Amino acid sequence: MPAANDIRRGQVIKFNGEPHLVMETQHRTPGNLRAFVQVKMRNLRYGKALDQRFASTESIEVLPTDRRTLEFSYADRGTYAFMDPESFEQIELSEETLGDVKNYLAPNGKVDVLFVDGVALSVDLPSSVTLKVTESADGIKGDTASNVQKPATLETGLIVQVPLFIKEGELIKVSTIDGSYMGRA
To answer: 96 lies in which domain range?
Structure first.
């Protein structure tokens, strides 16, 4: 097993019996004390982030990982199906595993899925996605004060604030980071 000094950003480690994604590491040697590694990590099963301090020589179990680009197929009763475009293998993930990611999944959209020991644990989205507006109120003529916005419901059920000129049926780009409108597609 590697020492805490050897863990890097992007690796998945086993901590308290759960897989954790390493988001940030810092090696510190304060004054006359022993060196330690400060790790910021996120639990892949529950999504909770935490900071942990490891002795620099402490051994840590690094789990084997695999990232694959999959295509979103469909959603059915809280289960989301993804297909591998090369092998046509289908993988299903629960609504709890996806979390807020489900609001940005459009049919045939590509996502990166992280597999740990052959089990899909997290989904990474691109920085923006193109979604169709399914419901939006009409803008009021003359209501053109600076940057006036209205709510629009997208095909995934997500509600986004958009400019008045956006109408039902249009495709728009939405940021997956904060859920904001970025422009027409």
So the answer is: 65-124
